[in-house]
C-alpha cells in the first residue's frame, strides 16, 4: 500500500478514527456490510497471508457473539422455537449477526490501522502532546508482534535440540512449555533494559531535546483531510435527521432506498473504499509512467542505431 504509506500521519489517524468510530456506532445492515467488506478488502491488499491466518481467531469470536444474543435476549415478535420455555426470535438472531458483523469490521479496521500507523508516525502525532503516553502506546503496539516473532524463534530452537513442547507426554510438554516461557520472559526483560539504556544514551526525557521528522503536510494531504471531514459531516447530518436508523425490536423497521438513504450509503461506501481508491490511482499513475518510458525508449534514436 504505497499510496497510504506516503500520507501524512494526521490523515491516516483521522481516517481510521472516523471510519472505526462510525462502524462502532452504526447498526444499519447496509452500512455494516459496506464497512465489513471494505475492511476485508483493505486487509487483503495490505497483507493477504497474515490476514487469512488471523481469521482463525476473529471468526470464532464473532460467531460466539452472534450465538449469545438470542440466548440472553428474547425480545421480538417472530418466534422461531423455544429453548427451556424461552422464545428464540428472529429479531434476536439477526441482531446478534449484526453485532458480530460490527465487531469483525472494527477488529479488521484496527488490524489495518496497526499495519499502516507505524510507531514513528504515532510518536510524531502525540509525542509533543504527551511523550510518555505516546511512547507507552507505541511500545504496546510493537509488543505483541515482537513477542510472536521471538516465540517462533524460541520454539524452532527448542525443536532443533529435541525439546519440542508439542512432543511427549503431558508432563514433558508442560516442562518444555515452561522452559519456553522462561526464555521468553528473560528475553523480554533483557530487551527492556537494552531499550532503556538506548533511550537514556539518546537523551530521552531531557529538556530542550529536539526530534527529527520526515513527514511533510502537502496539498494532497490537505485535500484528503478535507474530503474525510466532508464525508464525516454527511454522516453526522444523516444521523441528525435519522436517515441511517434501523430498528431490530420489537420487529424490523425495514430498509429504505429513498434518495437521502442512497446518499448516505454511497458516501459511506466511498469513504470506506478511499484507501483502495488511492492505491488504484497510484497504480494507474505508475503504469502510465512506465508505459511512457517504454514508448520513449522505443522511439529513441539511440536505440534505433
UniProtKB/TrEMBL annotation:
Residue ranges crossing the lipid bilayer per the database entry: 12-42, 54-72, 92-110, 122-144, 222-240, 260-278
Domain of life: Bacteria
Organism: Kurthia populi
Topology term for the membrane: Multi-pass membrane protein
UniProt keyword list: Membrane, Transmembrane, Transmembrane helix
InterPro entries: ABC/ECF_trnsptr_transmembrane
Predominant cellular place of this UniProt entry's protein: membrane
Pfam families: CbiQ
Keyword Transmembrane: yes
Protein's UniProt keywords contain Hydrolase: no
Protein name: Energy-coupling factor transporter transmembrane component T
Localization in the cell: Membrane
Amino acid at each position: 500500500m504505497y499510496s497510504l504509506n506516503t500520507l501524512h500521519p494526521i490523515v491516516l489517524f483521522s481516517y481510521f478514527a472516523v471510519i472505526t468510530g462510525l462502524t462502532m456506532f452504526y447498526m444499519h445492515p447496509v452500512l455494516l456490510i459496506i464497512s465489513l467488506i471494505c475492511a476485508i478488502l483493505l486487509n487483503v491488499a495490505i497483507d493477504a497471508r497474515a490476514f487469512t491466518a488471523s481469521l482463525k481467531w476473529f471468526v470464532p469470536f464473532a460467531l460466539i457473539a452472534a450465538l449469545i444474543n438470542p440466548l440472553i435476549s428474547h425480545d421480538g415478535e417472530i418466534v422461531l422455537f423455544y429453548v427451556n420455555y424461552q422464545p428464540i426470535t428472529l429479531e434476536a438472531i439477526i441482531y446478534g449477526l449484526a453485532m458480530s458483523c460490527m465487531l469483525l469490521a472494527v477488529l479488521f479496521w484496527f488490524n489495518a490501522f496497526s499495519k499502516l500507523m507505524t510507531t514513528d508516525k504515532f510518536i510524531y502525532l502525540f509525542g509533543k502532546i504527551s511523550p510518555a503516553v505516546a511512547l507507552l502506546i507505541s511500545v504496546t503496539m510493537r509488543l505483541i508482534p515482537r513477542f510472536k516473532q521471538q516465540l517462533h524463534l524460541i520454539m524452532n530452537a527448542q525443536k532443533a535440540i529435541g525439546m519440542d513442547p508439542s512432543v511427549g507426554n503431558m508432563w514433558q510438554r508442560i516442562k518444555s512449555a515452561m522452559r519456553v516461557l522462561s526464555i521468553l520472559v528473560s528475553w523480554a526483560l533483557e530487551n527492556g533494559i537494552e531499550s532503556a539504556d538506548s533511550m537514556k544514551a539518546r537523551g530521552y526525557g531531557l529538556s530542550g531535546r529536539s526530534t527529527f521528522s520526515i513527514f511533510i503536510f502537502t496539498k494532497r494531504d490537505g485535500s484528503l483531510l478535507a474530503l474525510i471531514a466532508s464525508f464525516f459531516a454527511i454522516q453526522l447530518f444523516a444521523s441528525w435527521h435519522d436517515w441511517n436508523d434501523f430498528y431490530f425490536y420489537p420487529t424490523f423497521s425495514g430498509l429504505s432506498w429513498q434518495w437521502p438513504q442512497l446518499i448516505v450509503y454511497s458516501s459511506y461506501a466511498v469513504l470506506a473504499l478511499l484507501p483502495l481508491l488511492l492505491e488504484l490511482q497510484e497504480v494507474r499513475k505508475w503504469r502510465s509512467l512506465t508505459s511512457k518510458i517504454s514508448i520513449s525508449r522505443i522511439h529513441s534514436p539511440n536505440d534505433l542505431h
